[in-house]
Specification:
This protein has eleven helices and no strands. It has 203 residues and is mostly helical. It is elongated, with a radius of gyration of 19 Å.
Length: 203
């Protein structure tokens, strides 16, 4: 991806996160970039094309981060073997890294804020929000925990309930960090939560 195409995505996403997708026109995006609409259209067909590339980039980054922290990239249904050997340490490191990513990385933070706004206005955005920050992560952890129980790593329990108990504080602490600006306190609470969870769940 060229620098110009990347800059268009970053600028558009920042505007979407601030004002909402519907309120931002191609003219506004072009103006913020100091270019004409015609110049922008050489890189993306329309505003929807920009949005689709933003989502595509986020999924690509997510896959890269999964590989980096040695956790599954795909859903259990498509790659069940990837869920067989996930360690507690993998989960701990990945969860903390995700918190820092969603709060510190400008692109990820704007993506999260855009979906937070748009989930109440648009069914597609609501589904994306759920996939990225609610039902999606909970189902992902449920599959990991179920396999860990099969392998004797975790105590026998309801994996769905366990996933909710583990994941629920994550978006809460991100929200607290957003509003207070005190990221370190939120991160400390997340680490303490993970440690307590591990103590109670591991055999």
């Amino acid at each position: 991806m060229t620098d110009t195409k990347e800059k268009i995505l970053t600028t558009a996403l920042h505007l979407f996160a601030k004002d909402g997708y519907e309120a931002v026109s191609v003219s506004l995006i072009a103006g913020a970039l100091g270019m004409t609409k015609g110049a922008l259209y050489k890189h993306y067909k329309n505003k929807r094309d920009i949005f689709d590339h933003i989502v595509e980039k986020m999924y690509r980054i997510d896959a890269q981060r999964s590989r980096q922290y040695e956790v599954p990239e795909e859903k259990y249904e498509t790659a069940p073997s990837a869920y067989e050997n996930v360690s507690i340490e993998n989960i701990k490191e990945f969860t903390v890294a995700q918190f820092l990513f969603w709060t510190e990385d400008p692109f990820a933070s704007d993506f999260r804020k855009m979906l937070t706004l748009e989930q109440y206005r648009n069914a597609e955005a609501a589904q994306l929000y759920s996939d990225c920050f609610a039902a999606g992560p909970a189902a992902y952890m449920e599959d990991i925990f179920r396999e860990m129980m099969k392998n004797g790593v975790l105590k026998e329990a309801d994996p769905k309930l366990l996933s909710v108990e583990f994941y629920a504080p994550f978006p809460l602490l991100i929200g607290m960090s957003d509003r207070s600006g005190d990221k370190q306190t939120a991160l400390s609470l997340l680490n303490r939560h993970i440690e307590r969870f591990i103590q109670g769940a591991v055999k």
